[in-house]
């Protein structure tokens, strides 16, 4: 099977947790989470990509 995505972004950021520039001039990074998801498209198969779901709990900083 060939490449699923041709854009360079998808070669590096296919799934997982990454540090991403915020782009607000603060020179800080944000956390980027890319999930493989749990759905399917057209066929009920997921070759080499097990379904996953993330549960995130966001808390306000006390600092």
Care to describe what's here?
The protein is mainly beta. It has one domain (1-40, 51-63). The chain contains one helix and two strands. The chain has one helix spanning 8-12; strands spanning 16-21, 29-34. A two-stranded antiparallel ribbon has the order 1-2. The protein starts with 7 loop residues before the first helix and ends in a 29-residue tail after the last strand. The mean pLDDT is 78. It comes from Paenibacillus odorifer.
Task: Describe the protein's topology.
Elements: H1 8-12, E1 16-21, E2 29-34
Q: What structural class do the secondary elements suggest? A: mainly beta
Point out poorly predicted stretches. Answer: none
Report the average pLDDT across residues. Answer: 78
What is the number of helices?
1
Helix percent band: under 10%
List the strand order in the largest sheet: 1-2
Major sheet characteristics: 2 strands, antiparallel
Instruction: Supply the number of structural domains.
Output: 1
Cα distance, first to last residue?
A: 49 Å
Number of strands: 2
From the alpha carbons, calculate the radius of gyration and give it in angstroms: 16 Å
Beta content comes to 15-25%
Spell out the helices and strands N to C.
Answer: HEE
Question: What characteristic shape results from the CA principal axes?
Answer: flat
